Amino acid sequence: MVHETGNRTVDRAVARVLEGETLDRRDGLALMAQPVAPLAEGADHVRARLGDGTVDACSIVNAKAGNCAEDCGFCAQSVHFDTGIDTYGFLDPEEILDAAKQAERDGAQRFGIVVAEKGVSKEKRPEEWAEVVRAVRLVRDETDVEVDASLGILTEEEADVLASEGVDHYNHNVETSPRFFPEIVSTHSFEDRVRTLEIAKEAGMDLCAGVILGMGESPTDRVDAAVALQDVGVSSLPVNVLNPVEGTALGDRDEALISTEETVKTIAVYRLLHPHARVRLTGGREVNFADGEEHLPFEAGADGVLTGDYLTTEGQSAAEDVRTIERAGLEPNTAVNDFDPAELKARADGTDDADAAVGAAASSTESTND
User: Fold this and answer.
1) What separation in angstroms does the CA of 350 have from each of 128, 224, 325, 341, 354?
2) What pLDDT shows up at residue 352?
3) Do 279 and 272 touch, CB atoms closer than 8 A?
4) Phi and psi of 66, rounded to 5°?
5) pLDDT tens for residues 284-342?
């Protein structure tokens, strides 16, 4: 049965996607010009037909903060900007494991080890590289979450090591379109980022790569970024919305240069261009969506979320994310991390019985892992 929104452009696109066809740049541009209501409805129908009806959650740890030599205009961790953030070297792997266990208790299916620099170098900083590998092993061996890494630009040898150590997904966002990228970053190229994604994929890791919306890019740039990711092939497409940080090149504005409606439209178009990927709502949603609007992307095809804090800014609690997901009529994914969403919400509300239950569950898990 053909799903009908009443918008011919959207309905034709939905039908083609469900028949197994891959939409192209022309399709993306045509869809971006459609009204948000039918576009969101069509994208949500595709998610419902091709997805599993759940929202997948990931969490991250800022494993090495600040002093990055790159000049990404949105980033508070660049040495080119005075943002006043705390800076530190690579965390003790045991601290990273503690963060992973907390993410697991909070219902995350995936846990990302993230560093702020152009790349963790096995050749130039072998001692740090050894600590990265030890952290990956600890998270892999002592939790049930999938292990993600975001370590910057990789060599083929480094990618092979990470894949052999059990890194499931490699994150390296392209941020924006090839055309707009030089407006945001000058110390490396869009092609550098794509090459690292190709290297990671060749090594056997799935790819997590996405964008930041609202930096001044055009709707065409948003489509072109998604088309570039089609060429690479991603299993997770994180969608950030700019949260301007004072001191950065983009910190002189009060908010992202994109409306809620345009954000929702973009997410819907990304669902149609990437029908089998997790379209993941990530940083900036807390400041760019008004109260009562955060569920809208999940009604427009989004089926992933980054829960908890981000690298240098506060995020949203796992319990609040569960409430948002449920408001959109979806369920948290419990396939990897078999947690109880009701228990998580009760724990956040300070219910004593829930706290005791979670404590017992955590003790049981730790005993098993030992």
Assistant:
1) 39, 46, 21, 14, 8
2) 42
3) no
4) 75, 180
5) 888 888 888 999 999 999 999 998 766 766 677 888 889 999 999 999 998 888 788 88
Write the single-letter amino acid at 77: Q
Q: Are strands 304-306 and 331-332 parallel, antiparallel or unpaired?
A: unpaired
Q: What percent of the chain has pLDDT over 70?
A: 92
Give, in order, the Cα–Cα distances in Å from 152 to each of 206, 243, 245: 15, 21, 21
Distance CA 263, CA 270 (A): 11
Task: Answer positive or negative: Cα dihedral of 114, 117, 119, 120.
Answer: negative
The sign of the CA dihedral 121, 238, 250, 252 is: negative
Length of the chain: 370
Could you tell me the two tokens for 24? 């192209």
Return the pLDDT at 314.
67
The closest of 190, 281, 199, 264 to 40, measured between CA atoms, is 264
pTM confidence score: 0.90
**Neighbour-count burial of 179, counting CB atoms closer than 10 A to its CB (0-12 exposed, 13-18 middle, 19+ buried):** middle
For residue range 34-92, list pLDDT tens digits in order.
999 999 999 999 999 999 999 999 999 999 887 788 888 888 888 888 777 788 889 99
Nearest Cα to 153, choosing from 193, 186, 180? Answer: 193
